[in-house]
Amino acid sequence: MVHEPELEREQFLQLVEEVVQNLPEFFSSRIKNLGVIVMPLAPPELAQQMGKNPWSILGIYQGIPYNQRGPFYGNVLPDTIIIFQAPIEAIARTESEIKELVRRVTIHEIGHYFGFSDEELYRLEKEK
């Protein structure tokens, strides 16, 4: 599947950064040691590890969730959220849909940073 990006990488990255910068202070003040990366598509080995098609992976959180960090947490590599541009743009057809999906996916992955499971996050999204 060949995908022509809707947005330039920098524009897409800016959308992700806006979501992170506009988090409520309650959350933003607690985010430490977290990197956010944009990649075109999940690498095949990551998709295989997850048992998924790379085009079905919109984002991923990798690290030690906030609620599982003990008193000895420290001196570790940053946790990482990776947002995958191509599958998001393949699902969302307009720039406003892309923006909304980027917001939802980024917030979902930040939820994992705080220790929420997929089931908890989906339930919270439905209650919204």
From TrEMBL:
Pfam families: Zincin_1 (PF06262). Gene3D superfamilies: 3.30.2010.20. This is Metallopeptidase family protein. It comes from the Bacteria. It comes from candidate division WOR-3 bacterium.
